[in-house]
Write a structure and sequence with these properties.
The structure is a single chain. The chain has about 350 residues and is α/β, with parallel strands linked by helices.
């Protein structure tokens, strides 16, 4: 199932240098690529690997055109990483053609549900009362769509995805296995040492072109809806609390936790394992480093980091103990500064 280098350029553009008929069997990493495989070099700092890789052809930036051409065929692109991303999409479409739409006989579809044209529904899926599935959508095995849930056109739900009552999923979304949309938010009122459940009456609204990784959970709102904007990308094992709002084209890496009623702006990024506490606001284009705990609102774009450096345990315990003394040390320094100021003769 190989493709020629010329066919790739015809489909995706770029400047072809070398043999257009070169057959490409697969896409591969630079370090392990073979003579019939295509790889890419995204930045000039990796230029030294151009001469050491065994790849049959490379995708390179304009600055590396001459170096790549000296060893063989290449495709020159303004942004090789973006070109490679689009190439992977084209390659999958060429090698894994879509199956014909089919509703499995074991699927349970309520008589009041609406199923659009060209929809596929897998084995043992459940489509609840009043649910709507847009044209071209794919519902995987064991998925559950609750009452009045909406799945937009061309969206893909892999196995065991749950979309709760009244939750809305936009067009061209991808939900990986185990995603739960619209579980109850964590809301309880204390009463004499016990907890009284607060019914979660909102829903979840998800925009178009959103991708959500495996086993990620997005809770429904308590009163208003939890809202995920267009183009948001969420990794695996993320928890989004009730009434959170995430702006368009924000991305979060694995194991991020966002507590209830936090607002995260557009075009933000949150590194793996980071935590955003509840009721905080992050402005547009805020980038949070991995493992950071965000404890205050951030109103200006930029990169923010807050983590205690790793160390051997004995040293870490000493430093942690010292941190506890910083408040008292600050007060002592202030007192000393005041004494010094008072002792200096006034001219």
């Amino acid at each position: 199932m190989s493709r020629s280098l010329g066919a790739i350029v015809d489909a995706l553009g770029g400047e072809l240098v070398g043999d257009a008929g070169l057959s490409i069997r697969r896409l591969a990493p630079l370090a392990t690529a073979l003579h019939d495989e295509l790889s890419f070099v995204a930045q000039a700092r990796y230029a030294s690997q151009i001469q050491t890789t065994a790849a049959g052809a490379l995708i390179v930036p304009v600055a590396l055109k001459d170096s790549a051409a000296s060893r063989g065929a290449c495709i020159v692109a303004d942004d090789p990483y973006l070109y490679f991303a689009r190439l992977t999409q084209w390659w999958r479409a060429a090698h894994e053609p879509a199956e014909d739409p089919r509703v499995d006989p074991s699927a349970s579809i309520h008589p009041t549900a609406y199923i659009g044209d060209r929809v596929s529904i897998g084995p043992f899926a459940v489509v609840g009362p009043g649910a709507r599935v847009g044209a071209g959508a794919r519902i995987g095995p064991h998925c559950v769509l609750g009452r009045d849930a909406l799945v937009g056109e061309e969206s893909i739900l892999y196995a065991r995805v749950s979309v709760g009552d009244r939750c809305v999923l936009g067009q061209r979304c991808i939900l990986h296995p185990g995603v739960v949309i619209g579980a109850d938010g964590f809301g309880f009122a204390p009463n004499q040492g016990e907890w009284v459940k607060i019914e979660q009456l909102g829903a979840v609204r998800i925009g178009d072109d959103v991708e959500i990784g495996a086993n990620t959970c997005i809770d429904r709102g308590a009163l208003d809806d939890t809202v995920i904007g267009h183009g948001v990308k969420l990794d695996n094992l993320i928890q989004i609390g009730h009434n959170v709002r995430v702006g368009d084209h924000t991305a979060m890496a694995g194991c991020v936790g966002v507590a209830g009623t936090a607002t995260i702006g557009a075009h933000c990024s949150v590194g793996g394992g980071a935590i955003v506490l509840g009721h905080l606001t992050l402005a547009d284009r805020v980038n949070i480093s991995a493992a950071t705990v965000v404890t205050r609102s951030i109103h200006q774009p930029g990169l923010y980091t807050g983590m205690f450096p790793i160390d051997d345990n004995a040293a870490w315990e000493k430093n942690a103990a010292s941190l506890k003394q910083l408040g008292r040390l600050r007060e002592r320094v202030r007192a000393l500064e005041q004494r010094i100021d008072n002792d200096i003769p006034k001219s």
